[in-house]
Design goal:
Length: 119
């Protein structure tokens, strides 16, 4: 885990196999919420894709990869939603590949970032 800023409470990636992300492969992230009164949390999904990713849903209208890039890898983040856990616990977030391919190629890593929402 790495904290990007003081509001980050969780940040983790899972690497995918070079041969692709299988349609039935589910990634699980175990996220501890330890505050006695949990704050409102902002959830982000993060993707690290290679330039050989075959689709344009990670590119802008001009065809340039979104996010930040270095070499042949680009990293982007998408805000999912804000949530307020009811109590401290370990929460499991699961991410599945929703694309049509049996093996989705061109994705290196999938991550989750959770931040405390500022008031």
């Amino acid at each position: 885990m790495a904290a990007c800023n003081e509001n980050t409470v969780y940040h983790s990636y899972q690497s995918l196999p070079d041969e692709g992300w299988g349609k039935s492969d589910t990634l699980s992230f175990l996220i501890p919420v330890t505050d006695s009164i949990p704050p409102t949390l902002r959830l982000f999904a993060e993707v690290r894709n290679r330039t050989d990713y075959p689709y344009h849903n990670l590119a802008d209208s001009t065809g340039r990869w979104i996010g930040n890039g270095w070499g042949s890898i680009y990293q982007s983040a998408v805000f999912i939603k804000s949530v307020r856990p009811l109590y401290p616990a370990n929460y499991t977030f699961k991410i599945m590949n929703g694309m049509k391919d049996e093996k989705l190629s061109g994705i290196n890593d999938i991550g989750i970032r959770i931040e405390r929402q500022e008031n």
